[in-house]
Write the structure tokens for this entry.
Amino acid sequence: MEYSKYNKAMVLLSEENRDFAAKSDQAIYGNLRIETGNSKGAISLSVQNLRFFERNRYIYKLILFGEKKERTIHAVMGSLILNRFGTGENYFRFDPGNVDGRGGQLSDYSVAIVAAVSMRDNKEPLHPVLKGKLAFSGSNVIAATAEKLNNKEETEEQETKEERNLFDEALETNPYDVQDFAKKQRTTYNYFYNQYVKDLCEKTAKAAELYDLILPFSRDRTGAKWKRIANIKNLPLVSPGAMWGASKYRHYIFGEDQKLYYVGIPGRFLNEEQPEGGKSGFVLWQPIVGAENLEATKAECSLENRMIAYGYWITAIDRETGDIIDPMQK
């Protein structure tokens, strides 16, 4: 198939599974814009009303399926970038003559699927959420449900030239600056730091097995099993404020349950003793046993009481992902 000429198509995606809708009373919908030219290709994916999952329980991937030599083939184009309101998009570059890196051409694919992929169980099957059919005619990729291209030769020729220039510029330079293309996020490396925190928490939990359980709170909103750690050099979080509090009081506490690790930093219910003002995840404060009656968290509490009411600033770490999260939103 000829991919040197510029071609474009709009693929409408229809709902396959309402269970993944952000608003259950509304349909999930989306579209793909597929463009090829100069033996290069790009897909812009856009969706609406797709459910957002905390802690990456599920992520959504765009996958093309087709048939070649009487066998099913597929190509994973990449992950959808989704916000908490259910709106998502991404931009994918590809080689139309070798989409999957194994010789599969764009013309070999007939179906595009947005699927929910479990990040907790690699044996869990994919959940198709959106689906679009592709048909192929000559060198053009056409969506079965898309409108026909304008047949006016002069208008079409002019539009094609302008779009081809835009397309080539986007591929050769940077898609972020092109108004008509979906934005693509820069590569992030958060995974390394999440894994680093997760590994340190696992080591701390193993070392804490040698310590006795403590009961620092009379009413513990986390339900964690706590240990007192005196070796502050191994504090498993990169937080200057937490290190300052642990150094000042010469210890921190470490807790865990089936889903989360917890880190508690000694401190009073004062702005200057909350690590990073809560920006690093230390958003829950609990008084130690005996300090509850001082009611330091109440707005009408006197400064005198707050100065003598000791407790711990607490954050939580997801045991599977290493994400630092609100300890009260499990």
